[in-house]
Amino acid sequence: MAEHPAYPVGLRLTGRRVVVIGGGQVAQRRLPALVAAGADVVLISPSATPSVDAMAAAGEIRWERRRYQEGDLADAWYALVATQHREVNDAASAEAERARVWCVRADDASAATAWTPATGRSEGVTVAVLTGNDPRRSAAVRDAVVEGLRDGTLTAPAHRRPRNNPGVALVGGGPGDPDLITVRGRRLLAEADVVIADRLGPRDLLAELPPHVEVIDAAKIPYGRFMAQEAINNALIEHAKAGKSVVRLKGGDPYVFGRGMEELQALAEAGIPCTVVPGISSSISVPSAAGIPVTHRGVAHEFTVVSGHVGPDDPRSLVDWESLAKLKGTLVILMGVDKIGAIAEALVRYGKSEQTPVAVVQEGTTATQRRVDATLATVGETVRAEEVRPPAVIVIGDVVKVHTPT
Ligand SMILES: C[S@@+](CC[C@H](N)C(=O)[O-])C[C@H]1O[C@@H](n2cnc3c(N)ncnc32)[C@H](O)[C@@H]1O
C-alpha cells in the first residue's frame, strides 16, 4: 500500500468510552489529555504507575486490574494499546481493527491505525504536530510553535479578540530581567498597540516591540492639575477608548506596592475591560537572585514584606515597627534605601539585635545587580558610604547568612 500522510482530526471525546490497555509510562503520559478531553476512560492493566493509580483513586479514570481479554474494545470509540507484551498488543490491535476502533500502538507505529501527535496548548489554541516517523521532530516543531505563540514572536492577532474594545492588561513584568516576565505577560506585550511602562521592570523588552507600538513612559505623562496616578489612569482610559489594545507594564507584581488595584478600579469605573497578569515580585526574586532564601528550614519560618517609603516616626506610616522588631523571621523592605538608617534604629530600639544581618540588593536580576552586606548597627552608614541607590530590596534576618556550601 502506498504510504499516504495521516489525516489529521480533532476527536471530541466527551463522555465517549476510550480504552487504554497497559498502565505504564505511556499511559501515564497520555491519560491526562484524555481526561482533559472529557473521555470516559477505562484502563485495563494488572498494574499501574503510582501516578496512574492516583488518577484512578481520584475517580478520573476507571481501572480494571486485570489482563486484556478479547471483547474489551466493545463500544470503545478510541483505544490506546501500550503493554510491554507484544502478543497482547497484537491481539488488542487486531480486535480494534475488526471492531473499527481507531487504535494507537505504543510499540509499533507502523501497525497502528492512529498516531498521537505532539501536542501543546497556548491560550485556547491547540497545536498538534505529526511528522510520520520522527517524534522528536514533531516535538521540536510543537515546541517552536507553542513557544512562539506564548512569547508573542509568533503572532496570530487577526481574529483573536474583537478589536472594538480590546481593553487594558495590567501586566506584572517581574523584577527587571526580561526573562522573568510571565509567558502570558510577554504575549500580551507582543499584541499591544500601546504600552505604558514604569521605570522599574523589564525595560529591555520595550526595545523588541515593533515600530507601530506606541511606548509611553509613565513617569513622563504630563499631569497638570491631576495627580500623577490619575494622569496615568486617564491615559489608560483614553487609549483603551480609542480601541487600542493597551498594556500597562509594571515592575514586579501589579498588586505589591504597585497601585494596580487603583488602576483596575479606575478602568472599571470607566467601563473598560481589564485583565491582570501577576508578576514575580522583587520582594522574593531580588533576594533570591542575590543568593538569599527568604525562608530557610531551621532559620526563618516567615517573611514579612514592608514598605519603607516613609520612616518609622512619620505619622503617615501604617507599619507597626515595634511588632516587626519582635518577629523572628525575615523582614524584606522595599522602597527603603532613603530611610534605612531610621528603620534600623527603630528596630534596634524595639529590641532587635544590633548584630542582625542585613543585605541590600540594588538593581536585582539586572546586569548591574550588586549586594552590600551590613548589620542593623551599620546599615545606615554602609548604604551612605557605598552610595547604594534605589531600586533596592533590603533583607533583614539570619537568612542573609545562609550560604551555598563551597
Ligand atoms: C513601587 S515598589 C514596586 C514593587 C513591585 N510591584 C514588585 O512587586 O516588585 C518599587 C520598589 O521595589 C523594589 N524593586 C523593584 N525592582 C527591583 C529590582 N530590580 N532590584 C531591587 N529592588 C527592586 C525596590 O525596593 C523599589 O523601590
UniProtKB/TrEMBL annotation:
Q: What are the entry keywords? A: Cobalamin biosynthesis, Lyase, Methyltransferase, Multifunctional enzyme, NAD, Oxidoreductase, Porphyrin biosynthesis, S-adenosyl-L-methionine, Transferase
Report which reactions are catalysed by this protein: precorrin-2 + NAD(+) = sirohydrochlorin + NADH + 2 H(+)
User: A Gene Ontology MF term for this entry?
Assistant: uroporphyrin-III C-methyltransferase activity
Q: Mind listing the GO biological process terms from this record? A: methylation
Domain Tetrapyrrole methylase: start-end pairs: 168-379
Q: Does the keyword Lyase apply?
A: yes
What the entry lists under InterPro entries is as follows: 4pyrrol_Mease (IPR000878), 4pyrrol_Methylase_sf (IPR035996), 4pyrrole_Mease_sub1 (IPR014777), 4pyrrole_Mease_sub2 (IPR014776), CobA/CysG_C (IPR006366), NAD(P)-bd_dom_sf (IPR036291), Siro_Cobalamin_biosynth (IPR050161), Sirohaem_synth (IPR012409)
Enzyme class, UniProt record, top EC level: transferase
Might you give the EC number(s) for this enzyme?
A: 2.1.1.107
User: What Pfam family does this protein match (any one)?
Assistant: NAD_binding_7
- Signal peptide range: none
Q: In which pathway does it act?
A: Porphyrin-containing compound metabolism; siroheme biosynthesis; sirohydrochlorin from precorrin-2: step 1/1
Entry similarity comment: Belongs to the precorrin methyltransferase family.
Q: What is this protein called?
A: Uroporphyrinogen-III C-methyltransferase
